[in-house]
Amino acid sequence: MSTAPFPILPGNKLVALGERIALARRARAMNQRDLAFLAGVGANSIVALEKGRPGVSIGALARVLDAMDLLSELDHLVEPQRDPALTQFATSRLGSRK
Question: Which pTM does this prediction carry?
Answer without folding.
Answer: 0.81
